C-alpha cells in the first residue's frame, strides 16, 4: 500500500514504464546460459565466482520448465561474444556478472541479455557481507527465475548457514574441477573434508568427496559413502540430495559393470527428480 497525503509526493507508475522489467512471456520454453562470473578481485579469490556460478546453474537447471546450458559447453566457447554464444548454445538468454571480494565485503553485479530482442532486460548490483556468502547464490537464482517467470515448485535441497563450511566447499570444488596435477586432487579432498567437519549435513560436499575417493581408486569406500549419504539425506528430508546420491552411486555401479544395481539407483533417482519436477536432472539421469 502506498502512502498518500497533501505533503507527500505520490509516485506515478506511468513515469517508470521505461524501467519496468518485463518477464519472459512467450510460449517457448525459456533457455539460458549462465556465464561464469568475472572475478574482479585477487586471483586467489577466483573460486568464489566459479563456485557460485556452478551452483547457480545447478539451481536454475532444476527449477522446472527451463533449459540451461551446461558449464562444460559454456567454457568451450569462452572467447566468443554474447550474441555468438547464444547462437552456438541455442539459448535465448545470457546471464553475465562480476564478483569482487574486498576484505569482508562482496561487490556483485549481474545482467540478463535477451538475444531475441538484442537488449539487456535486467541488471542489478549490490554488496553482501562475507557472512552472507551461502545466500548469494540463492539471491541470484531467485532474481533470474523471476525474470524468466519460473516458479520452483519445491525447495530442492538443504542449504548450509555455515559460511566457513561453504567457502571450503567452493575451494574444494574449484580445485577439483580445475585440477592440473595429481596433488590437486588431494588438496581438493582436504578442502572438502574441512567443509564436512564444519557442517556434517552438507550432503553435496559428501557426494563430491565420494567422487574424489572413487577417482583415487577406492571403489568400496566410495560406494559405502554414497550409501551413508542416501540414509542421511532421508533423515534430513533433503530430497534433492537424496536423488543426487542415488544418481552418482548408479553412475559408479555402472562403471563397475554392476548394471542391475546401477539401474535400481537410477530408477530411484528418477522417481524423486520427477516428484521435484526437476526436468534437467531427469534428462541427465535418463542419459546415464
Automatic annotation (TrEMBL):
| InterPro entries according to UniProt | TPR-like_helical_dom_sf
| One protein family per Pfam | TPR_12
Designated name of the protein: Tetratricopeptide repeat protein
Amino acid at each position: 500500500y502506498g502512502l498518500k497525503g497533501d505533503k507527500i509526493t505520490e509516485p506515478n507508475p506511468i513515469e517508470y514504464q521505461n524501467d519496468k522489467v518485463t518477464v519472459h512471456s512467450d510460449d517457448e520454453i525459456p533457455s539460458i546460459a549462465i556465464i561464469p562470473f568475472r572475478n574482479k578481485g585477487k586471483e586467489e579469490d577466483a573460486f568464489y565466482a566459479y563456485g557460485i556460478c556452478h551452483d547457480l546453474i545447478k539451481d536454475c537447471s532444476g527449477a522446472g520448465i527451463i533449459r540451461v546450458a551446461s558449464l562444460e559447453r559454456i567454457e568451450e566457447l569462452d572467447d566468443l561474444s554474447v550474441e555468438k554464444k547464444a547462437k552456438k548454445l541455442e539459448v535465448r538468454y545470457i546471464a553475465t556478472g562480476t564478483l569482487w571480494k574486498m576484505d569482508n565485503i562482496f561487490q556483485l553485479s549481474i545482467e540478463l541479455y535477451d538475444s531475441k530482442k538484442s537488449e539487456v532486460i535486467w541488471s542489478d548490483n549490490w554488496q553482501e557481507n562475507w557472512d552472507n556468502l551461502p545466500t548469494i547464490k540463492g539471491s541470484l537464482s531467485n532474481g533470474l527465475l523471476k525474470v524468466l517467470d519460473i516458479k520452483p515448485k519445491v525447495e530442492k535441497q538443504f542449504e548450509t548457514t555455515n559460511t566457513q563450511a561453504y567457502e571450503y566447499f567452493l575451494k574444494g570444488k574449484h580445485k577439483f574441477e580445475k585440477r592440473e596435477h595429481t596433488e590437486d586432487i588431494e588438496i581438493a579432498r582436504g578442502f572438502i573434508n574441512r567443509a564436512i567437519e564444519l557442517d556434517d549435513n552438507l550432503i553435496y560436499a559428501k557426494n563430491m568427496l565420494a567422487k574424489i575417493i572413487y577417482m583415487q581408486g577406492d571403489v568400496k569406500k566410495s560406494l559405502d559413502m554414497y550409501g551413508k549419504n542416501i540414509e542421511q539425506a532421508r533423515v534430513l528430508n533433503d530430497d534433492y540430495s537424496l536423488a543426487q546420491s542415488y544418481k552418482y552411486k548408479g553412475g559408479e555401479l555402472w562403471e563397475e559393470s554392476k548394471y542391475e544395481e546401477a539401474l535400481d539407483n537410477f530408477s530411484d533417482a528418477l522417481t524423486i527428480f520427477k516428484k521435484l519436477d526437476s526436468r534437467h536432472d531427469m534428462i541427465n539421469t535418463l542419459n546415464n
